[in-house]
From TrEMBL:
Its main location: membrane. GO terms for biological process: siderophore transmembrane transport. It is found in: Cell outer membrane. Keywords: Cell outer membrane, Membrane, Receptor, Signal, TonB box, Transmembrane, Transmembrane beta strand, Transport. GO terms for molecular function: siderophore uptake transmembrane transporter activity. Belongs to the TonB-dependent receptor family. It is a multi-pass membrane protein. Residues 52-144 form the TonB-dependent receptor plug domain. PANTHER family: HEMOGLOBIN AND HEMOGLOBIN-HAPTOGLOBIN-BINDING PROTEIN 1-RELATED, TONB-DEPENDENT OUTER MEMBRANE RECEPTOR. Residues 1-20 form the signal peptide. This is TonB-dependent receptor. GO terms for cellular component: cell outer membrane.
Length: 731
């Protein structure tokens, strides 16, 4: 289905209708100017107003959205935002995951190993969601960017304490956070947010696989099992601001996180056809830790009224250790498999950036800047199976990689006239990756120039409504794991024999090039007088050099017989388009005939449709990997009149769909539904109690990989509901 003509027509129709409504609204405002002034003062710092003032299309979410459900992980906030969803622990925008969706922290790319699940919403000032890139940030954002702005030093004293209990399985866990912020003498302000978190989850699993055993004979297996991930950790994000002069500031932002994790699991295998595998009663355990620290120093200086500079330096390091043990027994209870994998990785990085801005006349604001970044990773991994080294000479050998990135850019914010404003940018970015280590030596250099054009049009200069248009280039550079030639062996099939299409080995490709995307975005945003919003948007991306995993059977150096190997390659191109609808506001404003003006009910809804085609993959359903055809987000918040109690609920839904991955493989993904709810009771001006439910009535996550010829690998994962009770106190 080609959505572009339909979407463009819908956007134009919405713009025409809203323009007519806007003229009536303008007359009403002129009839009561005093009332208009009061509304402006009350709403001047709302998320909707901040969104409207942005020179480019950007969704902004502040404290109201961050605090609403009492979440202890930022990922739970993000999954409820329009156009954003979580799939397989990965953030996705417009149905596209991986590095298609860029995660930024204070405008800089997130450090290696960073996860939004490690960050407490109490440590975040706001979230900015951009659908198209800008020149002053990395253009590795084909689907868009999520910029996490950490807590800033407050203007007044802030002391907040949050303590909570949560339950998913077996026994409750404890979470909490404390934030202290104040202004001190000498023009200094500081904030210290600290959080500790813990988790304990149960997932039940089921699966069925039809394939071939190590001798190539048909084999059909059914599995049942469970896994229990649990752990604890803490993070801290202090910030200090110094006002050195009237137009001169210095800020120091830190962030540190550490968590200890463990996962236990058990799987029983039933033989439905063919010979039994080496083990049918499997147990595994995984334990380890992750830690990271980052420190940024930023200097801002304004020269007179028309010039300013910003300098920033960031250093960071981190790493992880893991120890995985797998024990397998046959039908007679005899242990046939003892495999242990241990490893550790260390990351170090430093960035240096600066930009200079000045006004050119009354209509132009010019900014030029540059960035330098250096990251390195040292890694070591070892697997011992039944007392013998797996892949001697490759496994157990050290590996390191170094990434050097440089960028220069220029941008111009142009106030063309009272109705038109524009943003023109140009960014050039170069990435050089080198690696040394057994089986992993490579060098890869990529260079991308990204022109950017954003335009805003106001139908009425005195009104709020906007038509936004963007024509941009973005890209996705291959990550280190995709480049490493060192193989990862599927241990279900020992290297003494062959394997199957459903259980391939994996290897990287040092010759990969970046995926390039040319994008068009058009959106109409209507801002209602009571603070609501109606938005209709369309987008199109043409991607060249698309990276996909190929699946071939070939002779390999780590086995004496040919093996099936999955390897990333650059395909020719793909196209993706979509239509995005969003509406939010007070129920009385959105549906005045149904609700009284005094009804304290807020509604929000987002509906998105996606379509994509990959040229070098035969259809039908030759979509981009794991891109759902549509998604729906609904939300409702209500405040009681008789009691200091408010409540709300949200629904996120994606349907089942199929993707033709290669000529040989096809992936079926089941529907996903998440229901969250909360009740907040304000006990006093300083204390509140919040009860929240996440993933109410959970659906099982299913996937099925089908191989041409009839083989398949089906799996189902059933999570449990998460319950949380939080007490919040403001000193």
């Amino acid at each position: 289905m080609n959505l572009k003509p339909i979407a463009l027509a819908a956007a134009m129709l919405a713009a025409q209708t809203a323009h007519a409504q806007q003229e009536v609204g303008a007359d009403d405002n002129r009839a009561s100017p005093q009332q208009l002034d009061r509304v402006e003062v009350r709403r001047q710092n709302t998320d909707t107003d901040l969104r409207r003032r942005q020179p480019v299309a950007k969704q902004i979410y502040g404290r109201d959205e961050l605090d609403k459900y009492g979440d202890t992980q930022l990922s739970d906030v993000l999954k409820r935002l329009p156009g954003v969803n979580m799939q397989g622990g990965q953030l996705r925008m417009r149905g596209l995951g991986g590095a298609f969706t860029q995660i930024l922290v204070n405008g800089e790319p997130a450090p290696p190993g960073f996860s939004v699940e490690q960050l407490n919403p109490a440590q975040v000032e706001r979230i900015e969601v951009s659908k198209a890139p800008t020149a002053d940030q990395s253009a590795q954002a084909i689907a868009g960017s999520i910029n996490i702005i950490l807590k800033d030093a407050p203007r007044v004293v802030q002391k907040d304490l949050r303590l909570g209990l949560a339950y998913n399985h077996d026994k409750p866990v404890v979470n909490g956070s404390f934030t202290y912020g104040d202004r001190v003498a000498g023009g200094m302000a500081a904030v210290l947010p600290i959080s500790f978190f813990s988790w304990r989850l149960l997932n039940e699993t089921e699966g069925e696989r039809l394939g071939r055993d190590a001798q190539g004979r048909p084999q059909r297996l059914a599995t049942e099992g469970w896994d229990l991930p649990y752990g604890h950790g803490f993070n801290v994000a202090p910030r200090v601001n110094w006002k050195l002069g009237e137009d001169e500031t210095l800020s120091l932002q830190g962030f540190a996180v550490r968590n200890n994790f463990r996962n236990l699991g058990h799987t029983d295998t039933t033989v439905l056809q063919g010979a039994a595998p080496t083990s049918v009663d499997d147990q595994f355990s995984n334990r380890g830790n992750f830690q990271a620290a980052r420190l940024s120093l930023q200097y801002n200086k304004r020269f007179e009224d028309d010039q300013r500079i910003e300098l920033r330096s960031t250093v960071g390091n981190g790493g992880a250790e893991f120890d995985t043990r797998f024990l397998g027994r046959n039908a007679a209870g005899v242990q046939t498999m003892d495999r242990r994998t241990t490893g550790e990785g260390k990351n170090r990085g430093a960035t240096l950036s600066g930009k200079y801005s000045r006004f050119l006349g009354e209509a132009h604001s010019l900014t030029v800047g540059g960035e330098l970044e250096r990251r390195s990773r040292d890694e070591q991994r070892r697997t011992v199976q039944n007392g013998a080294e797996l892949l001697p000479g490759i496994e157990g050998q050290p590996f390191d990689a170094t990434i050097n990135r440089s960028a220069v850019y220029a941008q111009d914010d142009w106030e063309i006239n009272k109705q038109w404003s524009g943003y023109l940018g140009l960014r050039h970015e170069r990435i050089r990756t080198t690696s040394e280590g057994a089986g992993s030596e490579f060098r890869n250099t990529s260079s991308v120039t990204t022109p950017l054009l954003h335009l805003n049009y106001k139908f009425d200069p005195a009104a709020r409504d906007l038509l936004r248009m963007s024509l941009t280039r973005s890209y996705k550079a291959p990550d280190v794991q995709q480049l490493i030639a060192r193989p990862t062996i599927n241990t279900e099939y020992p290297t003494s024999g062959g394997n199957t299409e459903t259980a391939p080995d994996r290897v990287g490709n040092a010759a990969l090039k970046p995926e390039l995307a040319t994008g068009l975005d058009i959106a109409f945003e209507k801002y209602l007088s009571g603070g609501g919003l109606v938005s209709v948007g369309v987008f199109h991306r043409r991607i060249t050099g698309l990276i996909r995993n190929s699946l071939v059977q070939e002779s390999v150096p780590w086995a004496a017989v040919p093996r099936w190997v999955a390897k990333p390659i650059n395909l020719s191109r793909a196209n993706t388009s979509g239509l995005e609808l969003e509406i939010k506001g007070r129920a009385a404003e959105l549906m005045p005939g149904w609700f009284a003006p005094t009804t304290a009910l807020n509604l929000r809804a987002a509906l998105s449709f996606y379509d994509s085609k990959v040229k070098d993959v035969p259809g039908p359903d030759n979509r981009l990997e794991q891109q759902q055809p549509w998604s729906l987000n609904l939300g409702v918040d209500y405040r009681l009149k008789s009691l200091p109690v408010s409540m709300g609920a949200s629904l996120a839904f994606t349907p089942s769909y199929e993707v033709q991955q290669t000529e040989l493989t096809r992936l079926e993904t089941g529907r996903a539904r998440t229901i969250d709810a909360f009740i907040l009771w304000n006990l006093s001006k300083t204390d509140s109690l919040r009860f929240a439910i996440q993933n109410l009535a959970p659906t099982a996550g299913t996937s099925n990989t089908l191989i041409r010829g009839g083989d398949y690998n089906w799996s189902e994962r059933r999570p449990n509901t998460w319950y949380a009770l939080n007490w919040e106190h403001k000193f």
